[in-house]
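Discussion board: Methods & Data

I've been asked by a reviewer to show the raw model output for two of the constructs in my manuscript, not just the figures. I'm not sure how much to include, so I'm pasting the format here to get opinions. Each protein appears as its amino acid sequence followed by a line of discrete structure tokens. Is this the kind of thing reviewers expect to see in a supplement, or should I convert it first? Here is construct A:
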Amino acid sequence: MGPIEQLQFINAIPPAAIVDNAAPTSNVIDTAVQGGKFLVFLLQLGASDVAMAGLVVNQSDAKTDDTTLDTGTELVDWSDTKTLPSATDDDKLYAIVIDLRSAHQRYMQLVPTAGNGAAGSFISAVAFFSPIGVPDGSMGCADLLEFTPGTAS
């Protein structure tokens, strides 16, 4: 079995209708289910007419259901510390890398919030557990990385 076949992909935010001034439905990820040193969220933005209003990873030791944490707290909030995706960042990918070796609670949930525009944003995400993280090791608890989309030629 190759390295990619050993990864378990989780639909963190299934593709859905456009959201405006709101967060899309996001699934809760159980960090106790899989082994791995890092939890990686791959956030994909589709067409958007407005900048993202917020980007948070929440955590809790309990969940109410598959899409709701029970009294969650913020593990990390990039809304004030990073430049969030803008209205011109259509079709970009972002990797949110969580270091599971740092103190954390059992359940995590990615919560991106679309800004208030004329239409809104298409947002989806997958998650997977990885044995490797950010190469330079300077990420601390979590990091947000932007990828420029390539072409499929």
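Construct B, same format:
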Amino acid sequence: MNLVNHPRQLLSEAIRTSIKELFDVSWTPRVIRQHKNKSYGKLTFVDYAVPCFEIARSLGISPEDLTKKICNNLVIKHPCITSRFTVDSVDGYINFELCDQFIYSALKDSAQWYKKPQTLSSEAGFNFLVLGDETFGDATNIQRKACFLIQDIYRKLGAETRIKCIFSNYSKEAIEQIANFFIKNNKDKKKKLTVRSTVKRSLRHNVSSDFINEYKTRYSLQVRQKLQNIEYGNFIYESDLAEETHTFISQFVTSHPKQFIKDETSFAVFLACDDEYVSLRTSSGILYRAAFILFLLNSILKETNSHSESPVVIAPQYMHNFINEAAKLFSSSGVVCFDPKVSSADIRDLSSIKSLSNHFSQIITVISELSEVKIHNRETRQNLLILVDLPIELNEYVADKRLPALFDLLNNSKDKLELLRT
């Protein structure tokens, strides 16, 4: 499908040109689907609409007068629009109804796109950094499903993704998590007390403990076994980054003395972040999880700066402020933060989709089975246009990294597809 000839693209370009012709002003219109409209004017269906309130206000013209002028201009100077759409202006909106021939053409073209999807993005690739909520439970079910979907969507559109997942098995928080897990799953009270005292001594003095080393190894093996069949990204363990992170923190403290505070009497380091101090290293020299995050942010931003793009950091909401503030130390472009829990309902519902290829195949089947009677049913017509618009919206959301909207969009298309199949 040539997305340039998509109904929304044609309307956007024609109205943008009309505004330029009439007022010598540059404006990018917003083409929407108007599901509910109290006044349809002379149209049987309102397939698309363009609200003109904002541009009318800036031009000092009433929305009603402006939409009438644009409609007249479209009729006189843009036969490519009037041959495909019936045009009307109502209450500050320019409304469009697709002609029968064009709606069939749009459906046919969209089916071609679903057979061979493509991206409009010019970016060389998209970087993702995945930070889990828990130390040894980093890849939670929702997060894992979100990463699978992201990889599937971007790959299907031919967009390269680079996903790095960090698993905590070395930081102060990881040691505490090990202890909590052992205590929770051990009934021997004496052993529980021994574990608590061992962990406290280890954290206070950075002393190596056979117990801690044993459970670090055990947890790492468990995590690796769980993840051995997962293919959505490169997995990194804190233990593999510890030496580099220590060096990075020490160098950065020296080069950015205003942002970092170092305790000269110990190994403790803090980052000044939005009127708060974030601990990076304990007085005994044990790294906090924030230190590893800082190191990885610097690494991924160095990589993405050469492509002039903002990486996506998939992390719990409570981490977002720290991540955004820390990213400012390394790059003006910043990062896009996303918490999969925000889209948990959509992500769970999308689990019924085996793959995007399978979803697209079902859409193609439904489109090919359509009858003229169905197209002239108002609700069915709107549901079909959602599938016609999906290629454009997928491209927009992928390029803009609008992940919550992306999952909602796919879930909506799944629901409409089910309605069309009944």
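Answer (T.O., handling editor elsewhere):
This is acceptable in a supplement if you add a one-line summary per construct. For B, something like: DSSP finds 17 helices and eleven strands in the chain.
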